Amino acid sequence: MAVLPTQRHIAYRCPDCGNAVIGLIGRFALSAKMLRIKCSCGSEHTLDINIASGEKIRLSVPCLFCRQNHSYVVSESLFFDKDRFLLNCPYSGMDIAIIGDEDIVRAELDRTGRELETLIKNLEAEELSDIQPQEMNDDEILPDPTVYDTLRFIVKDLEDEGKVKCPCGKGPYDLRFTDSGLQVWCDSCGASHDFKVSSPTLAEEYLNLDGITLK
Fold it and tell me: Can you give the C-alpha Rg of the chain in angstroms?
């Protein structure tokens, strides 16, 4: 019988200094009301982890690009059982958190670090702060975080059950905002499916969705 992992490494980059912050999360540690990971630079941006209802884990992750936290809900089994799990910014599409075994997390940090350097260079910026918004509130960058949170929960649950289909069948799958709502897309082949939602009520109508086919 396979032994399921009892702990996972999670990493993000601090929006203030840009350095990687790595934490170790155990299954039993999640019995605490909240776990918080913060950068040694003293930044007020912290990664918070809470247990949600139904064996779900809620994460509030600092975004290197938006300078605010994005909210995600994943199943406990998905959090601990997958070798690699990425969370990305719904606006830039860039990965902002990595969950998995330590060697995989560190390898992904190297990859995302190179991508960040390339992005800064291509934008002809001198430092990280040059590509970040200086004054932006929640309403400007996330018109309704609950919509994104609800649909991402639905998509990740369906992906975990093998009910998200695309031409390549590889994934991983994630969400991003579009002019008409939200779009689930495959990171490998680019296939996508649009959800025309603008409110939490409309998003909740998809809770009984049996599957998604990307084209």
Answer: 17
Give pLDDT tens digits for 147-169: 777 888 888 888 888 999 999 99
Q: What is the pTM for the complete model shown?
A: 0.63
103 contacts 96 by C-beta, under 8 angstroms: no
By CB neighbour count within 10 A (0-12 exposed, 13-18 middle, 19+ buried), where does 103 fall? Answer: exposed
- Choose among 70, 59, 62, 68: nearest CA to 14: 62
Calpha distance 132→88 (Å, rounded)? 16
DSSP 158: H
CA distance 35 to 26: 10
Whole-angstrom CA distances from 38 to 13, 15, 21, 46 are: 10, 11, 7, 5
Per-residue pLDDT of 54-109, as tens digits, reads: 678 888 899 988 888 888 888 887 788 888 888 888 777 788 999 999 999 999 99
**What is the bridge-based pairing of β-strands 173-178 and 56-62?**
unpaired
Can you tell me the distance from the alpha carbon of 20 to that of 126, in angstroms, rounded to the nearest whole number? 19
